[in-house]
Amino acid sequence: MWDHEIRAMASTHAIIAASVFMATVVPAALVRGFSVYGTHLPWLYAVSGAVAAVSVAAFWLLGISPPTKKHTLGYKEFPKSRCQAFSKGSQDKLIYKLSRLFRSCVYFFLSCLFFHAVVVLYGAPLIESALETFSLAVLLTSLTTLRCLCVLGPNVQAWIRVFSRHGAMSVWDTCLQITVACTLVGAWVGAFPIPLDWDRPWQVWPVSCSLGATIGFLTGLVAAPAWIHYHRKQLTYKCK
Amino acid sequence: MKVRSSVFASFILILEAVGVALFLRGFFPVPLKSSLSSKSKLSDLPAEPLAGSSPNSSRLPQPLFKRVVIMLVDALREDFVFGPNGRSYMPYTRHLVERGSSHSFVAKARPPTVTMPRIKALTTGTIPGFIDVVMNLNSPALLEDNLVWQAKAAGKRMVFYGDDTWVRLFPKHFMEHDGTTSFFVSDYTEVDNNVTRHLDSTLKRDDWDILILHYLGLDHIGHISGPHSSLIQPKLLEMDDVLKKIHGALVSKEAEGSLPYLLVLCGDHGMSETGSHGGSSEPEVNTPLVLISPAFKRKVGMEKPEVVEQVDLTPTLALGLGLPISQNSVGRLIPGVLEETSLRDQLRFLHLNGHQLSCLLKDSTPDYEKEAGFEQFRMAERAHGSWMKLFLEGNTSEVLTNMGRKVLKQYLEALASMSSALSKQLGKYDMYSMVAGMVFVFQLLLVLLLAMPEALSGEATVDLPVLSALLSLPFYLLCLLLASVHVLVCTSAESSCYFCSLSWGLVFAAVALSSAMFCILISMAMRRLPLGPLIHGKSPSRSSEWSLSELDVLLLAGTVGHTLSLAASSFVEEEHQIWYFLLNTLCLAVFQDVCRKYFREQSASGDEEEPVLPSRDCHPSARSRAEVLPERWLALATPPFTLVCCRLLRSLNQTGVQWAHLPDVGHWLNSSEHRTLLSLLAAFCLFLIYFLVQRRCSWVSKVALALGLLGVYSYRAAVGNVGFPWQRSGSATSKGTVEARFVYVFILGILFTGTKDLLRSQIVTADAELKSRGLWEIYSGLVLLVSLLFRAHNLPVLCCCLLIQTLMAQFIWKRLHYDAAQTTIMHYWFGQAFFYFQGNSNNIATVDISVGFVGLESYVEAPAVFLTALNTYAGPLLWACHLVCYLSSERGRRSPVAVGHGCYCLALLRSVPAAAYIVLVTALRYHLFIWSVFSPKLLYESMHLLLTAGVCLFFITMEQSPGSSKS
Ligand SMILES: [Zn+2]
Ligand SMILES: [Zn+2]
């Protein structure tokens, strides 16, 4: 039924995964001394940047965001209907889009802060290595929140709906659930090797966590289309 | 036989504790003992070997030293003397080391690096087993053969000043003694002045042969502020002055012609980077050993000190004083000490040491003849004999000297290999007892697991097929089989097993119990098996019910993951990290649950703007919004608040190993310049505790509680932790006995009121209100006791514990309808995390033994052990007790079997890691860290198991009432 969407999803995911790969390989070829452990923070920024750019571009090209406009939430629907009613046309549309962009940026930043706070609550040092912690927060945000922003738009109600049980209303929602869960679980599992006394380079904060998050994200990218493909018979969306 | 789940769970837990005790007995090696019950005597010493003719010369070598002064500085680390700072820390000692007639060594102490086992090692020459650490709490007189006893028997006059552990270990051995107690850790000047004040008069006198000084101040400084604090240097300079004084006095007293003196400077153990000790890290293990005597050659510069074992001092001192070496000593003579004596004496000394070691080896190993060291010793003895023959014939050629050197070398090699063979023996395990205990524990665990569906059912009763098991044929066959196995093992094994040494009645009871358990296990498994598919096939509704929420997945994964993590030594050392991590995740999961509940409720109950969910069943929001709103926000705020609390608490006490050196708030608060802040914090916490606890008590208890908490504060002020605003900080500190006893009176009063209410509710009237009040009163008595025992800087832990309990009970567990099992697991996790929040770790060194003295004038064993255990396990106990109170007071609103379910879950949660850990420890018994990491954890686990069994008994009494009130 959703063969088309699954195919689109798989190809998008392939592009995103390729971007992660490129972000690791290309700077290593261009910049001297670039390595995942050695210069961890630049690698982290490269991956976050690449994933952010590619997913924004891919979802914009695919035009996934409209579903949010069509199906959910009042806030966006409201100005739209008004704009149709008064037929003010493109100017309102632009303002609406700009405000949407602005809100997305604010959400992005808030989500960074949120992840930072959560990581500190998990025991990361408060003052020392705050930069490392915040970089991890940025990575987590660009792997998870950014995707939510692309698919659902800056709309908390929709987010809560998607992340509560049986709340997915489209293939993309299910895909979002899977990738976000995989990323977070990856980062979570990545914290386990830190107390081991092996003295390896990847046990340094936050290397193992960010590696875990990236690997989890990649796993999610592979797992989501596969899972949807094998469960397409059982999946029923109420609003689709 | 039908039993209620709580009875069943407690019964299983108690039996498990017995099984674990048997395992422990087998796991901790019995100290190496010579078969001779008497002590070594001079007359028993072997004759000097002589080839050919019968040994005619039983001459004993002359003692090397006339007087010995042993200056033991507690927690003296090797680098305090030999390190780069040594020159500024201990200038005079360093001068002696570099230029004087001295020998210096790095003496390796064996873990556990705790004072009493170290003193035992130094005096007996044995390596005390780990179990000695537990015995550290009360040190009965040392009955083993030891140096001090030998010296006394030989008529040496001994004087001792310092740590009173010595006085307790060797009562009536010293001509003169003055013991200082080491439990008031905050005092580091008085303890040492008490020793030094005797020095001048003692050094002037001539009526003693051995002087032992044990200085505690350095160790106390280490415990307070670590090895890099500014207090260390003045203390070491003080020690250096003492050494200078002793050395000067000895030099001035020295007379021509008589034997020289010996001055020994040593440490019992080192000090870790955090200032504690007990483990096996390098700084804890390496202690300096400096021997100063005119009998030694002068040094010409600093050499790298040789490494010896700490126990090597024992035979060296014994032979140096002309005493027999203690029977069980595994040490070997330090050859450097003998360098200036004649070759004949050197060989004789080594022969004596070798003879003692070979006797011990003969006694402790069945196939001693195969030991390389034993064979070497025989050969060396023979060569020694022929050397003696030549020597006595008057041969003085170069050849003889060379031959003598060769014999000496042979002896040294033999000593080294015998000593190491003996030390290895100490790691021998009593496998039979271990396996017996393990099998027993696993049978019980399996029974517990198989009973899960029944125990967690609506009836909460377990049907144990005891009668059918006891009357079945397999039971008798099994009994027979096990008994025969027992006889077979016990007759065949040469080494002694504890299980074999038990009386026949006990063994038979154990065999019968074990086979009965086995039969019960089989019949329960049989009952489960055909039932399984039946349920799946016939009731699909039930199988669909069996879906796990994210929270359940987390709870299960966390429990399993924690159990698995016990296999890695780093995870055992850093177990607190695991609990903090899991607790954090739990709070986040709960937060998600709360969000879902309230946001979905909100959207379902009709949002003005637009409903999100397609199911638009807008049921009328009957509840007024004003009432719902604050409650909702409080519920939403509870998990984040808990998270913040946990984050703050974890920075209060750094524990573990890797990050233990990081500065924490606890140390910061305890430093003298923050005393006012600590006082304010303590007062605020006590006030908050009162506010949180008093709600559910009767007015009598309220008053008692308030007075008791005031008493707690004045106790802390009396001890000197906190101050009253009107009190100047310079005032003298006391032990606070009166204040502590004042608090004890109120604790007993509250407990009495609570018990009275409980009994009245059960016997006279079936009043649920009264009963719940009684329960909470008992709980508040416990809280008061804990607040008395906790150090002042730990009061926030107690405070947060109560706060989280109140908030969670009010807004989370009740509102989100978590069932008894989920609530129990959450309580258990919180309890575990709080165990570490209060500063505990899986290392024995963090047990705070000073609480055993709260309100007591002197050491009394039973209350001291009870108080110490209570203080150490305060976190888990408080949470378990809260679970009892919460479940039984909530019972009216939820299913009446919640208490039984809770008890069963608690038992399961405790016995799964305990059983798994036993297996892990057995598998890892030759691991490098078995003594320093895994063994202490084993003791902690078993103690926790025992305490949980106690709490489960409390559960039983709570569950009793529904039956009685119904009937
Ligand atoms: Zn000590
Ligand atoms: Zn100490």
From TrEMBL, chain A:
Keyword annotations: Endoplasmic reticulum, GPI-anchor biosynthesis, Membrane, Transmembrane, Transmembrane helix
Pathway as given in its UniProt record: Glycolipid biosynthesis; glycosylphosphatidylinositol-anchor biosynthesis
SUPFAM superfamilies: MFS general substrate transporter
Entry membrane topology: Multi-pass membrane protein
GO cellular component annotations of the record: endoplasmic reticulum membrane
Superkingdom assignment: Eukaryota
Pfam family, one: PIG-F
InterPro entries named in the record: GPI_biosynthesis_protein_Pig-F, MFS_trans_sf
Localization per record: Endoplasmic reticulum membrane
Record GO biological process: GPI anchor biosynthetic process
Keyword Transmembrane among UniProt keywords: yes
Membrane-crossing segments per the record: 12-31, 43-62, 105-127, 133-153, 174-192, 204-228
Protein name, entry field: Phosphatidylinositol glycan anchor biosynthesis, class F
Species lineage: Eukaryota, Metazoa, Chordata, Craniata, Vertebrata
From TrEMBL, chain B:
GO process terms (BP): GPI anchor biosynthetic process
Keywords in alphabetical order: Endoplasmic reticulum, Glycoprotein, GPI-anchor biosynthesis, Membrane, Transferase, Transmembrane, Transmembrane helix
Domain GPI ethanolamine phosphate transferase 2 C-terminal: 547-941
Membrane topology of this protein: Multi-pass membrane protein
Lineage: superkingdom: Eukaryota
Presence of keyword Metal-binding: no
GO cellular component terms, A-Z: endoplasmic reticulum membrane
Pathway the protein takes part in: Glycolipid biosynthesis; glycosylphosphatidylinositol-anchor biosynthesis
Regions that span the bilayer: 7-28, 431-452, 464-489, 501-522, 676-693, 699-718, 738-754, 774-790, 795-813, 864-887, 907-926, 938-958
Subcellular location: Endoplasmic reticulum membrane
Keyword Ubl conjugation tagged: no
GO molecular function list: CP2 mannose-ethanolamine phosphotransferase activity
A Pfam family: Phosphodiest
SUPFAM superfamilies: Alkaline phosphatase-like
Family: Belongs to the PIGG/PIGN/PIGO family. PIGG subfamily.
Protein name (record): GPI ethanolamine phosphate transferase 2 C-terminal domain-containing protein
Species in which this protein is naturally found: Gasterosteus aculeatus aculeatus (three-spined stickleback)
Lineage per the UniProt record: Eukaryota, Metazoa, Chordata, Craniata, Vertebrata
